[in-house]
């Protein structure tokens, strides 16, 4: 878009575009975001905001018609500052920058789970566009499966290392989901594992979980998945009073063993600043005793039990038996996961898992989208 004309109104630069639209740029904002005031290698701001008066205005400004730039001379500089028209349009006040990692949630139920995308390990690891498609499917649908990993326990880790650093926790950066003789978590037993999200007791629960199936030849042990966003959406529509109670009441979560005692209060449903559902924290086996006022307990239990019943309804719960060489990846702040009982005397079941935080996932998507 060509710059048609530029004017100053008080402490604001007004840019008129060729389509007769105009954009307002406060002078202090322009000085603070001068493209020349960032380190050329680190890309970090070097300008000291307190080095100029808050009422700063330019000594002069003009249009560079040849290159379609706005040229400004600030009183604290000896050289002109150059603002390309494309930069002015993409970063103007009041307009959010385009984000290649923006998530467009696609909710699902058990009946549509089988239609969710799958990806092939060798293409994900060798083709950047397939990796991007995998990551976008994961963030939008909340879950996807990679097929064709080799038998090595490191094969699943290699995919994660291409995305970003693995999130550490009290279970370590990498964990083995197997039946253990002295378990400190229900996942390390062979019994039925109720649907849940991991570690809501943490200050910030892990965002994305990856579980690589090494072997799964025991009877039972089907993996269970449920889209918590779908449940929340249905509650908002059909039972808004329950939705509001789960979104506005924080409950305590706690994990404790011989080495740790980690606690956090948070609601089952978290909303973002626009009111959209941004996180589900559901873990009945880590929920501590509810500590809201006594007169709220009965109503809250009704809401809590309603969510629990929906998370067990076959309409919402998908069941799949992972095969050796498959790796499921899912949004731990959205998708509830669990496991049917399995019988160790009939075979082995071993999943190798790790977490990757959302900031690292989104960073990789932005770089691949550029």
Main sheet: strand order: 7-8-19-11-22-9
Q: Examine the coordinates and then state which fold CATH places here, giving the name of the CATH topology of the largest domain.
A: Double-stranded beta-helix
Extended strand count: 22
Shape: elongated
Give the helix/strand class. Answer: alpha+beta
Mean pLDDT over the residues: 94
Superfamily (CATH H level) name of the largest domain: Clavaminate synthase-like
Name the quaternary structure.
Answer: single chain
Low-confidence stretches: none
List keywords for this structure.
370 residues; alpha+beta; NE0471 N-terminal domain-like; Double-stranded beta-helix; 2 domains; six-stranded mixed β-sheet; four-stranded antiparallel β-sheet; 10 helices; 29% strand; elongated
Summarize the structure.
The protein has 370 residues and is an alpha+beta fold. Helix content is 25%, strand content 29%.
Structure report:
With 370 residues, this protein is α+β, with helices and mostly antiparallel strands. It has 2 domains: 3-90, 2-Layer Sandwich (NE0471 N-terminal domain-like); 110-369, Clavaminate synthase-like (Double-stranded beta-helix). It has 10 helices and 22 strands. The chain has helices spanning 27-32, 85-90, 110-113, 121-126, 128-141, 155-163, 228-238, 240-248, 294-310, 358-369; strands at 3-9, 12-17, 22-26, 60-64, 69-73, 81-84, 118-120, 143-147, 174-177, 193-196, 208-216, 219-220, 223-227, 250-256, 261-267, 269-271, 277-280, 317-320, 327-331, 335-339, 342-343, 349-356. The strands form 7 sheets. Strands 7-8-19-11-22-9 form a 6-stranded mixed β-sheet. The chain has a 4-stranded antiparallel β-sheet with strand order 10-20-13-18.
